[in-house]
Amino acid sequence: MFSSRDKAEVKLYFDSSNEENLKILEQCPSLYQEYNAKVTDNDRINNIEGSEPTIRNGVTYYPPYYLYNSHVMNYYGSFKIPKLNLPIRRESLINPADNGTISLDWFELGEFKEDTPTIVICHGLTGGSHERYIQYFARKAYKEKGFRCVVFNYRGCAGNKVTAEKLYSAVQLDDIKYITEYVQQQLPSVKKWFLVGFSLGSAILVNYLAAAGKNSPYLAHVSISNPMNMIECTKNLSSTYINNLIYNKGLANNLKRLAFKFGDRLEKYGTKEQIGACQTIMDFDNLVTSKMFGFETAEQYYLAASSSQSIDKLEKPILFINAIDDPIAPVAGFPWDKFKSNPNTILATTRWGAHLGFISYEDHLSFSDKIAVEYLSTFLKDDAQDKTE
């Protein structure tokens, strides 16, 4: 550990007038421990106005000494952690709204009761159930509390066939609505449903929850590495040579490979040559995504899709986990005041962790997985359902 205790402190943002928030945090010792100190302007993140936390926190997070660099953390989390290859059972589904093909991958980690609490997981930009961060989270949730986990794989992702005119996006909610109804029909005895999103999946989660309000069947939610303000995200992706080379161009290439699976269906937005010429995510979103979902420009799409626009509209419990050094989802543009005034939200930020990394020096496993499962576990008690209705 090469940094001060204050830098490593996990900063928490929530509505302190809501006693339930404190009760939840007190049940999450990996997320919150009492710390006898006052909050001052010195506790702000990068001196951003309003970013001082709600309360001081006794919990700290340190990565291993060789993962303090965010790019190294991202590489390690994506490629160096051993693959788990957890057993899954796949269900391929057709959304009758437009005949788009999606799938559900159920992790078969043991015997489950009919009413076992179940977590639906939304993956990142072009990911799926095979991703390391997905599988490690599912294993953690099962081993710690016996959760059943199922991954919602988007159109064209994780081996899904392309059968419709449209891709997916942070504002395309037809698929998440469809699979939510479907899993409830398949498991009618489950009373405790949870929704967890990673990266783009967390943006889909937030937009779904903002639209559903109290009618969402999910009891509680977790958002990890949320691209909170997508306009600021695109700025940060182009801000340095490394960010642009590794992330901006890399993610754009992933999107282009996905788009080519759609063949001639996307010609109304751009030719194969035009799509192939996209060098950044914003190039692709200006050409394809924005037009496909009814926007004139990528910036208009980003504004509508950004979770920062919806924090005050969330009516059920949700924990957000973001790293200050995330090169893909920077904290610039975070709606700090909204987190502090919505009684349903808790935001936890760590000094390190990068994007979907959060590897801890203590066990070389994900700190975000630990606190996410701990948070969701507080809703397993019999009275939890009543408190969220």
From TrEMBL:
Pfam families named among the record's database cross-references: Abhydrolase_1 (PF00561)
InterPro entries membership: AB_hydrolase_1, AB_hydrolase_4_sf, AB_hydrolase_fold, ABHD4
GO molecular function: acetylesterase activity; monoacylglycerol lipase activity
Residues in AB hydrolase-1 domain copies: 117-330
Signal peptide: none
Annotated catalytic residues: S199, D326, H355
GO annotation (BP), single: medium-chain fatty acid catabolic process
Family: Belongs to the AB hydrolase superfamily. AB hydrolase 4 family.
Protein's name according to its UniProt entry: AB hydrolase-1 domain-containing protein
Organism the protein comes from: Dictyostelium purpureum
